[in-house]
């Protein structure tokens, strides 16, 4: 069965999996094992030399985790993928083969707050750095790229504000500079946007969110398009030149479009150990089977809730890109034509105090630091996820003190609206 010709709904159920060859089990078994018996010494040597693909040790690969990687690669239209222990791990794993001390990533300033902290603080310990730019200002994006820039980074639908990034324009700039575009597609999922079709080289996911869809797993995935020419310049020596960390293997020369994926497994997972566990992969595989159905409902509900909120006098503004009043609306029609996701912010009259009261008053919504669950969720970013940031950074990231972020679930929309109605009454009375 050629996976390329199948629709996304079919790939979500079938891609990456076959009935278990040992038992015929129809569902992917949870291969709860750390190691795999080699047939003989020669077989072991061939596996370690990457001359034969197979399983060695579950820090590197595991059949359940591999099934998930292959399913996500198929959904995103990539050549290969690697699963990681979290979305944050996926971001480090995406940068790892590209960067070295003194290198930088040029990143959108509209990002999940944790990513801003990871990029502005933690990666500096590796000698890497990030430059944040407003991706509405394409000239500023181009100007920020210098000879040490190794990637451009953005989110398709930015958390928390629901801002839609012009991926085609970002890809054009990255192409001109000879660097890969990395897109965090967590909030859109491949059902709303496939960034590789817009020119992205790498797609990262927090599988913790919509992919699993029920708040049971912390996981991440990096998908490689397989289309970037790592040997076109001397910027990516780890991929295009003999790699001392893998007995001098030239990954691009030896593995072509699978170079990035094999590097990520053979060196990234081997040495950083940010591995997804098989049980987490199993839950995520289960979740993905219904991803398309859930995204349809998430989007339908989010649009109805955003339209209702926008008309409410207790509300100062709604950032949902599916509303014609949003500055992202036109771009959203091009980048996420099936819907602008289900995550947006709401500015509540009365500012910080009213936001806190609203969060405390809701009954159906859960007050949690998560998104993309089947349940409707709410958080006040300025006092939680974006708390580490300066107020100016919070505003740039779309997380000003007077906004709450809501992640609309798949419940009956009338119940979601009724809860918001009683919550807003309590918050603004
Ligand atoms: C858009 C986005 N990317 C990445 C992450 C990080 O993912 P994880 O929590 O799985 O590490 C998050 C977490 O909220 C996120 O919202």
UniProtKB/TrEMBL annotation:
Give residue numbers for the modification (N6-(pyridoxal phosphate)lysine).
Answer: 209
Assigned keywords, A-Z:
Lyase, Pyridoxal phosphate, Transferase
The protein's matches in Pfam families, at most eight in alphabetical order, are given as:
Cys_Met_Meta_PP
List, in alphabetical order, the GO biological process terms annotated in this UniProt record. cysteine biosynthetic process from serine; L-homocysteine biosynthetic process; transsulfuration
Q: What's the domain of life for this entry?
A: Bacteria
Q: Which residues form the signal peptide?
A: none
The protein's matches in InterPro entries, at most eight in alphabetical order, are given as:
Cys/Met-Metab_PyrdxlP-dep_enz, OAc-hSer/O-AcSer_sulfhydrylase, PyrdxlP-dep_Trfase, PyrdxlP-dep_Trfase_major, PyrdxlP-dep_Trfase_small
The cofactors it requires, by name, are: pyridoxal 5'-phosphate
Keyword match Protein biosynthesis: no
Q: Does the keyword RNA-binding apply?
A: no
Write out the GO MF terms.
cysteine synthase activity; lyase activity; O-acetylhomoserine aminocarboxypropyltransferase activity; pyridoxal phosphate binding
Tell me which GO cellular component terms the UniProt record holds.
cytoplasm
Q: Which NCBIfam families match?
A: OAH_OAS_sulfhy
Identify its protein family: Belongs to the trans-sulfuration enzymes family.
Q: What is this protein called?
A: O-acetylhomoserine (Thiol)-lyase
* Organism in which the protein naturally occurs: Donghicola tyrosinivorans
């Amino acid at each position: 069965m050629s996976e390329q010709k199948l629709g996304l709904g079919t790939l979500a159920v079938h891609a990456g999996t076959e009935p278990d060859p040992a038992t015929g089990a129809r569902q992917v078994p949870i291969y709860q094992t750390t190691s795999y018996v080699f047939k003989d010494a020669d077989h072991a040597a061939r596996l370690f030399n990457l001359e034969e693909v197979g399983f060695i040790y579950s820090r590197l690969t595991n059949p359940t985790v591999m099934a998930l990687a292959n399913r996500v690669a198929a959904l995103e239209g990539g050549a290969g993928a690697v699963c990681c222990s979290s979305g944050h791990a996926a971001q480090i794993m995406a940068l790892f083969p590209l960067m070295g001390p003194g290198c930088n990533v040029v990143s959108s300033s509209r990002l999940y707050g944790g990513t801003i902290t990871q990029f502005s603080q933690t990666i500096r310990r590796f000698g890497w750095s990030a430059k944040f730019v407003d991706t509405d200002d394409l000239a500023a994006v181009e100007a920020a790229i210098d000879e040490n820039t190794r990637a451009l980074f953005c989110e398709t639908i930015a958390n928390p504000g629901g801002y839609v990034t012009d991926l085609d324009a970002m890809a054009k700039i990255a192409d001109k500079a000879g660097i890969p575009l990395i897109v965090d597609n967590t909030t859109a999922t491949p059902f709303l946007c496939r960034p590789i079709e817009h020119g992205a080289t790498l797609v990262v996911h927090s599988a913790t969110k919509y992919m699993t869809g029920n708040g049971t797993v912390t996981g991440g995935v990096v998908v490689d398009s397989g289309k970037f020419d790592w040997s076109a310049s001397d910027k990516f020596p780890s991929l295009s030149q003999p790699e001392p960390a893998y007995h001098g293997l030239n990954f691009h020369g030896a593995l072509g479009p699978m170079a990035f994926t094999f590097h990520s497994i053979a060196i990234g997972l081997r040495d950083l150990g940010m591995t997804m566990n098989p049980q987490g992969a199993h839950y995520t595989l289960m979740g993905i089977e219904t991803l398309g159905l859930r995204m349809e409902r998430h989007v339908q509900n989010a649009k109805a809730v955003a339209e209702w909120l926008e008309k409410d006098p207790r509300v100062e503004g709604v950032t949902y890109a599916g509303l014609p009043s949003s500055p992202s609306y036109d771009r959203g029609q091009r980048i996420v034509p099936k819907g602008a996701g289900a995550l947006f912010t709401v500015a509540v009259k009365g500012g910080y105090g009213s936001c806190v009261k609203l969060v405390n008053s809701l009954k159906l919504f859960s007050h949690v630091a998560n998104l993309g669950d089947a349940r409707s969720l709410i958080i006040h970013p300025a006092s939680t996820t974006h708390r580490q940031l300066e107020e100016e950074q919070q505003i740039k990231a779309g997380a000003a003190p007077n906004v709450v972020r809501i992640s609309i679930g798949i419940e009956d929309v009338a119940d979601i609206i009724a809860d918001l109605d009683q919550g807003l009454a309590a918050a603004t009375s």
